[in-house]
Every structure is written in C-alpha cells, then in structure tokens.
C-alpha cells in the first residue's frame, strides 16, 4: 500500500521587503513543514531582479492580482503597508486563496470589519494573522495559568514596553514612515501591535480607554512616538499601557495583579509568579496588625502568606514566525486549529485607534460602542493636512 503524498501549501508572497524576504528564505530552505514557495509579487523592478537571482525557479509577478489568478499559489501572505492588508486579504479570499495577513490587521476598524465580514462569508478559505508572539513559551505558559483560574480574577495590569528605540534615520528612510496617510500612525501601528494583542489575549479586551499621546515628541514625524493610556476592563479592573520610540535604554515589563497572586514579566524572558496562600481579601480580613508588622519586618515565614516562583526563558527569536507559518499550512492541509484567527486582529486595531482618538479629542473612548466614523474622519483630516496621500473611505 503506497503512502499518502505529503500535502504542501504553495505560498505566494505579496511584497518582497524585509519581512517577505525572510519568509521566502525560510520556506525555500524547507524550514516550514507543509509549505513551499509558490510565487512572489512586488511592484518594484529591483525586487524582480533580486528574486530572479535568489529564487530562479519561482514565478514572479509585478501585479499581485495576476499572481492570484495564475494558479501558482494556494495561499498568500500580505507583507505590504498596513492600509493594504484588508484590501488584499478580501481580494485573495474572494478568489479562493487562503490568506495570512500581517499585523496590524488594518489601520481603522471600518476596513477591518469589512475584511472580517467577508472572511466569515467565505469559511472555505483559511484566514489567519501573523501574531507570532502568541507562540512565545513565556506567554503561552502564562495564558494557560491565567485561564486555569488558579490566580483568581484580574484586578490590574500594566505593560511598559519602550524597547522600540528608533533614531531619526529610521524614519528618514522612506517618505511613508510615521505618516498618517502612508502608515496610519506611529509606534502603535508599527512597533507595538504585538504587545497590544498579547495584552488583550492574556487580560481580555478593554471596554474603554483614555490616552495621552505625544506626536512628533522627540522625532521629526507626524505620528505618535510616545503613548500613555489607561484602560477600563469593566467591573473595576483597570490597566495601563506605555510605549515609545525615544528610550535608548528601554524597558519591557508586564505586571498582572490577581485576587490570589501576581505575575511579573521582565524583558519577555524572566517570569516571577507570586501565589497567595488565600485570596488577598481573606488575608486582609484575617491578619492582625501584629501579623502584618511581623511579615514586613521579616519575623514571619512569608510562605505562610505567599510563595514565589521564578523562571527564565531562553530567547526564541526567529522561531515564532516559523511556528505561525507551519500552523497556517497545517490548518489549510488538515484543519489544525489556528494560533491566531484573522478575525482577532480587530481588537488591537480598535485599541490603538481608540488611544489615538482619545488623544485627539481629550475624552475617554468607548471601545464596545466604538465611534468608527468619527475616528476615520479625524484620521482623514490629518491625511489631508499632510497632502501626500489620498484620504480613506
């Protein structure tokens, strides 16, 4: 009896930039199980020459629509500017092509909602998003712990992520960088989408946000380069998110306080989990002031109140993208559940744009009954003022 032939998804790469080039390399080297490099599409003639040299057997198209219609690909990944993610995903899915969209899912919620609705109407095609940080063992382990309920309900969470230092030269590389019309924002749409996704993946989606953003604070750009935001998860649970691109030293620290413990993650590597012996309110009610004094003077065995677990994780940089690509191929080939369904991308887009809208208007923004039309109107005002790019609809 002959063995069943291995299934291989022929992936088309739309945009052979840094990210697309990395994907082409690992796929062509056979590092992604169940996937081969089907074709490449890019409007830049220089990319055609580069592709011909590196991947001479792989078809190249200067029009991604032609690639979708060629029969050379079963799926695509959209490594293109953020504004194009939704549009290209809709087009590909409409042609029966499985799609892995890059983060963020889009710039404004209206386009992402349209994409999600279209994908839902075409369940025969796989729709995923490149949230590769969801494969990081640091966060997958925490997700399991939080979901188990062992630490109780969330009370507060804070993430300071300022390891995104970018010099002025970074922004000067391309005219579209950190512009409203070309990129749709600054640190919130370019550098921090992974943390915005992870934060909500672990803590749940916030219901409201109030934010202070600095636009062109320490860089000669139009968009945000520093963010301080306070979110409301409902039922008294709050959170704080801070990010910037002007901190050369940088900090990456996530804290999550629960009824019966606390999680602290430093540098996305070192995890400290403190478990209370009883819920905090019970300890508060039962401990006398003499007990409290003994605890803080070091005269009581702290294990009577809490235990501390520390764990250091090794870096898995580079492997995470491979894991998502492999998972995407497995979903197409045999229905393996996705690491991140494409529809989940709207959460990060809504939160990021909610932060921007809060800063523009000076008010708290409702993320449940989100004012999508108002955000788009405010965004278009800024695009029009730049005078470099078309407004969006």
Q: What does this entry look like structurally?
A:
The chain is of the alpha/beta class and 393 residues long. The protein folds into two domains: 9-131 and 319-341, NAD(P)-binding Rossmann-like Domain (Rossmann fold); 134-313 and 347-386, Dihydrodipicolinate Reductase, domain 2, CATH 3.30.360. It has 14 helices and 15 strands. The protein has a nine-stranded mixed β-sheet. Strands 3-2-1-4-5-6 form a six-stranded parallel β-sheet, with helices on both faces. Residues 10-123 form the Gfo/Idh/MocA-like oxidoreductase N-terminal domain. InterPro entries: Gfo/Idh/MocA-like_OxRdtase_N, Gfo/Idh/MocA_Oxidoreductase, GFO_IDH_MocA-like_dom, NAD(P)-bd_dom_sf.
CATH class of the largest domain: Alpha Beta
Proportion of strand residues? 15-25%
Global mean pLDDT: 96
The structural domain count equals 2
Helical proportion?
A: 25-40%
Short recap of the structure:
By secondary structure, this protein is of the alpha/beta class. It is built from 14 helices and 15 strands.
Secondary structure layout:
Blueprint: E1 9-14, H1 18-28, E2 35-41, H2 45-54, E3 60-61, H3 64-70, E4 75-78, H4 84-94, E5 98-101, H5 109-120, E6 127-129, H6 137-148, E7 154-161, H7 168-172, H8 187-190, H9 193-203, E8 208-215, E9 224-234, E10 237-244, E11 252-258, E12 261-266, E13 270-276, H10 280-286, H11 289-296, E14 306-312, H12 319-334, H13 345-361, E15 365-366, H14 372-386
Parallel strand pairs: 1-2, 1-4, 2-3, 4-5, 5-6, 7-10
Antiparallel strand pairs: 7-11, 8-9, 8-15, 9-10, 11-12, 12-13, 13-14
